[in-house]
Specification:
single chain, 10-stranded mixed β-sheet, Pseudouridine synthase, 20% helix, 8 helices, alpha+beta, 3 domains
Length: 328
């Protein structure tokens, strides 16, 4: 939902977060700060990065995109989870493509959170009401490994591990094209796309620092199998970096066109790829120290079943064995 207001003369010089509280949809300055941080606020006359402390002038137009409120009580969903590890503190699981991590206005139920609520009552005790246990996310169309906290203490400690970049997160993707440099790092500031609000972009005025290491493991017929290491965890980070560096992830139609595959795939193959309803990105490796015991934990998720035939066809299977991938 989008709302807008014009700054009146009596509000000349007001802070942006204070002005946002004049909107019915913004209950507090902390909520306003989160909207600003997420790139959901625009001041049409200001081109520099917005902050909560940004001072406004009379006549400026402030536009706010606010999501609809979620139900106060989240429902349970009886759905089997692929759990790799579980103890009293945390769960490491493999999320399948097509599953949303937590409820949102467009997906109020049948998410990973709803399945977790059914799996254990611990997620209802002292946890974030909208995202109980969730420390990090992967996109709906992405498969792979996630760690979930089972109590507030573990949630705080895992959050600190992510903040301090003490988590090993390696992905792989099949991309269209081969970059000039077969390995390297991509750095930019990623935020909400200035025009298409579904996309993220390095051109955003509200961008946050993002760094992705990449290495080409193999390439065949203008397709590349790429390993990625995340140093940060911005929304759509790998997808944005691949697209902007001109080797987009195949089947990621938000950031690339399927028509770009016509030079090396048949029309039937492209049609079959579209039926997958996902793109070729998988969170394969997750490693961290257990926040309570200090034990080093490392997990590997093999090729998803829905991509196995295609990985065979592309000739990339041998490069995605656990030993080869982790040590690549």
């Amino acid at each position: 939902m989008q709302s807008q207001k014009i700054v009146s003369e009596e509000n000349e010089g007001i802070r942006l977060d204070q002005f946002l509280c004049l909107f019915d949809e913004v209950p507090s300055r902390s909520h306003a700060a989160k909207l600003i941080e997420n790139g959901d606020v625009q001041v049409l006359e200001i081109t520099k990065k917005l902050k909560a402390s940004t001072k406004l002038s009379a006549g400026q137009k402030v536009v706010v995109n606010t999501p609809k409120r979620l139900p106060s009580v989240l429902s349970k969903w009886d759905y089997p989870l692929e759990i790799y590890f579980e103890d009293e503190d945390l769960i490491v699981l493999n999320k399948e493509s097509g599953m949303v991590v937590h409820p949102s206005p467009g997906h109020p139920d049948k998410t990973l959170v709803n399945a977790l609520l059914n799996h254990s009552d611990c997620f209802q005790m002292g946890m974030n009401e909208e995202r109980p246990g969730i420390v990090h996310r992967i996109d709906k169309e992405t498969s792979g490994l996630l760690v979930v906290a089972k109590n507030p203490e573990t949630h705080q400690k895992l959050t600190e591990l992510f903040k301090n970049r003490d988590i090993e997160r390696n992905y792989w993707a099949v991309c269209a094209g081969v970059p000039k440099q077969l390995s390297g790092s991509i750095e930019s500031e990623i935020g909400r796309h200035p025009v298409n609000r579904k996309k993220m972009s390095s051109q955003s005025r509200q961008g946050k620092y993002a760094k992705t290491d990449y290495k080409i493991l193999a390439n065949f017929n203008k397709l590349s199998l790429v390993k990625f290491k995340l140093h940060t965890g911005r929304t759509h980070q790998i997808r944005v970096h691949c697209s902007e560096k001109h080797f987009p992830i195949i089947c990621d139609e938000l950031y690339s066109s399927m028509s770009g595959l016509k030079s090396f795939l048949s029309q039937k193959q492209i049609a079959d790829l579209k039926k997958l309803n996902r793109f070729f990105l998988h969170a394969a490796v997750l490693g961290f120290k257990h926040p309570r015991t200090g034990e080093k934990l490392a997990f590997y998720s093999p090729i998803p079943k829905d991509l196995q035939t295609w990985i065979d066809h592309f000739g990339f299977v041998e490069y995605l064995q656990q030993e080869n991938f982790i040590n690549a």
